[in-house]
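Exercise 7.
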Amino acid sequence: MRLTILGGGGFRVPLVYGALLGDHAEGRVTDVTLHDLDAARLTAVARVLAEQAASVPDAPAVTVTTDLDEALRGADFVFSAIRVGGLEGRAADERIALDQGVLGQETVGAGGIAYGLRTVPVAVDIARRVARLAPDAWVINFTNPAGLVTEAMSRYLGDRVIGICDSPVGLGRRVARALGADPDEASIDYVGLNHLGWLRGLRVAGRDELPRLLADTEALGSFEEGKLFGAEWLRSLGAIPNEYLHYYYFNREAVRAYQEAEQTRGAFLRDQQARFYDEMERPGAPALATWDRTRAEREATYMAANREAAGVGERDARDLESGGYEKVALALMRAIARDERTTLILNVRNRTTLRVLDEEAVIEVPCFVDANGAHPLAVSPLPHHATGLVCGVKAVEREVLAAAESGSRATAAKAFALHPLVDSVTVARRLVDGYTREHPGLAYLNRK
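Solution. The predicted structure, written as tokens, is:
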């Protein structure tokens, strides 16, 4: 079975390959093709993968290419993890937004809209090529903003594109551990959009244990989200929000912390990864050890500004484990390729799952996965406060898609203005001006 990874020179690719190395079953991935526009980054990542595979006799063969069509032909699965504009683009997104006094995070608020406007045209081109060159392939999308990009690609690939994110899985595992439960034995009630969802229940042996957690202040303070949001607010919600909702519930504090920080997250990652790729150009550099050291630093500094705003200090070692998007991707491929039926939290078309949204809207919910793909499970309705956020942000996503399709500058400004974390037409127009000046990839917004 052949897997193609788009964005194959990306820093997190060794996580995916590491997961593949542990799979020895019949029907496993035997060939991995890495595609990237940057040949030097491809070479660097291929070095890390070679060291990973050194002691694994049946490791998947790795090839690299800068030719997109060549990468797609013959693929059974396509893993999309591209970053249009690179980390330099992300750093610019954050800076331009903060200059206007609004959040510039990669997937939330003004930064997420700018990133989406750059990424959607490229993702749509990829989807069209997959439909033409590998019509039987399944696309697993991790490209951010994951829900928005998955919805854009689904207009050409239907249900054969599925979005993944490790945030809900990581949240579920942390909550289970806080309850003293085995995360692998817990069933999670989770619903929303990508980076905008709520854990509303966690069942162990058929019993919902979340009320017990919400009643226990000490247990609530033992994991990342409990520290970020505080026990009182979590009890008010009756749920545990995805960590990204900290940008909504504590927006002013988060913006202030980002403005006062020495560097934005994007600028930190840009500089950190530049050092890594520069180091990889030295022939004798230990590739895997250098990558692993860089990855550990990356995880430890995740959402540092939010923790600063919440006054909770450095990240606890127990919270460093992510949900493991590479594990989600592997489980998804196994379920489809081998009919190893499972339940995963995924980004898929709504159908009739959330009745406040239309059938084509991509949402993030638990799904039953088998050889025929991912099928969203029934969920209970969202409370009004969550419905308002979900509908409002989905409306913004639709304006982003419309702007990307039409090239309308006015529609792009509308997307910014309607976002609850921008909420100003004047600021929205300034943002469009700033982003189009900064990013050549947004020149298409000058068409009308």
